[in-house]
């Protein structure tokens, strides 16, 4: 539907301007935005586009190589803190996935990425794709794009930025510095950069020309079915229009800042109890914490919390340390809910420690 497409193009431009993305991500140039069903789908589409370009480029340099031989040499890179959907995308794309070891703050640094790429190149492999994460699932870590971007540029590796959790927070100016480095481009490789917050912003999209679907204005408007896996599309842009018109930019900013403030309230409650520790820096609405005890004790605490039924939590693990995750998500959450949740956790923790004694 032309009307649906036009609204989606306009909404993506609105979002890009809210996020202060570079002009090359706007629809007026070679880029533009498209709404994908999930962040996992966006990662897979990005990988497939990068893979297609890498295969074509390799054939130009080595005409005697077959597609299968090239695919066997392609390597994608991401942090060991990245979402499992990146590894799954590599499996579906039939390419190797290399997890780059993160630093003590769970970030994938540029020097670690460069070291991994250099090692693979020496072994005859072809680096072609890298996923940087802004707001990792486990502990909300942020890979520095100012380091990752130049490395990708140096080696002609396409960069995809996964901001599925933290991306919406970038409408607040205090969180915009996390986006520094998104403007890095590589004209020699026609770098495709995806940025996702359930939406995807694309620099230089790859199109598939299908004669059956061609019409007189085929190349004058965005044909978003070629920017995704399925041909069919849902009218999701209307939801974005309603949200933006109902709340406005300031309303969305206030909502995000409220969640961040509530997360810091919970963080302070944890720090006041000497039996607990906050394991990672609190940046947005996620607080990672644990009892100062062994893994088994923390696992039992989590089981008791979820079995109790008053609140629900999920765990994570990094560098051998098991911890609990408290995420502020609901639109109606207030300070009293934070206090209530902490009282439940303390109550069950006290019961557990009494039993262990």
TrEMBL record:
Q: Which cofactor does it need?
A: pyridoxal 5'-phosphate
Show the InterPro entries listed in the entry. Answer: Aromatic_deC, PyrdxlP-dep_de-COase, PyrdxlP-dep_Trfase, PyrdxlP-dep_Trfase_major, PyrdxlP-dep_Trfase_small
Q: How does it assemble?
A: Homodimer.
Query: Family per UniProt?
Result: Belongs to the group II decarboxylase family.
* One Pfam family recorded for the sequence: Pyridoxal_deC
* Organism expressing this protein natively: Capitella teleta
Which GO molecular function annotation, any one, does this entry have?
aromatic-L-amino-acid decarboxylase activity
UniProt GO cellular component terms? cytoplasm
Q: Which UniProt keywords apply?
A: Catecholamine biosynthesis, Decarboxylase, Lyase, Pyridoxal phosphate
Q: What is the recorded name of this protein?
A: Aromatic-L-amino-acid decarboxylase
Keyword ATP-binding listed: no
Q: State its Enzyme Commission number(s).
A: 4.1.1.28
A GO BP annotation: catecholamine biosynthetic process
């Amino acid at each position: 539907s032309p009307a649906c497409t036009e609204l989606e193009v306009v909404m993506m431009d609105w979002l890009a301007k809210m996020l202060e993305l570079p002009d090359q991500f706007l629809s007026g140039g070679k880029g533009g935005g498209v709404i994908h069903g999930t962040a996992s789908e966006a990662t897979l589409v990005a990988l497939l586009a990068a893979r297609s370009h890498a295969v074509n480029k390799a054939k130009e340099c080595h005409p005697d190589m077959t597609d299968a031989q090239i695919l066997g040499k392609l390597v994608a890179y991401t942090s060991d803190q990245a979402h499992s959907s990146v590894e799954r995308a590599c499996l579906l794309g039939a390419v190797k996935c290399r997890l780059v070891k993160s630093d003590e703050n769970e970030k994938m640094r540029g020097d670690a990425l460069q070291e991994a790429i250099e090692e693979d190149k020496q072994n005859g492999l072809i680096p072609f794709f890298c996923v940087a994460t802004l707001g990792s699932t486990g502990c909300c870590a942020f890979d520095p794009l100012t380091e990752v971007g130049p490395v990708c540029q140096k080696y002609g590796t396409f960069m995809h930025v996964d901001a599925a959790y933290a991306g919406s927070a970038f409408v607040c100016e205090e969180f915009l510095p996390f986006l520094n480095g998104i403007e890095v481009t590589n004209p020699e490789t026609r770098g495709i950069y995806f940025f996702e917050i359930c939406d995807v912003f694309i620099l230089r999209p790859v199109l598939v020309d299908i004669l059956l679907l061609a019409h007189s204005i085929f190349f004058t408007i965005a044909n978003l079915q070629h920017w995704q896996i399925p041909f069919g599309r849902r009218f999701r842009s209307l939801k974005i229009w309603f949200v933006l018109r109902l709340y406005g930019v300031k309303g969305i900013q206030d909502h995000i800042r409220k969640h961040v403030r509530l997360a810091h309230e919970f963080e302070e409650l944890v720090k006041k109890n000497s039996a607990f520790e906050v394991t990672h820096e609190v940046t947005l609405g996620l607080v990672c914490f644990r009892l100062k005890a062994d893994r088994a004790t923390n696992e039992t605490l989590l089981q008791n919390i979820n079995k109790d039924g008053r609140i629900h939590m999920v765990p994570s693990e990094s560098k051998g340390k098991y911890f609990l995750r408290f995420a502020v998500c609901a639109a109606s959450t207030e300070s009293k809910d934070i206090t209530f949740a902490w009282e439940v956790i303390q109550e069950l923790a006290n019961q557990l420690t009494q039993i262990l004694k």
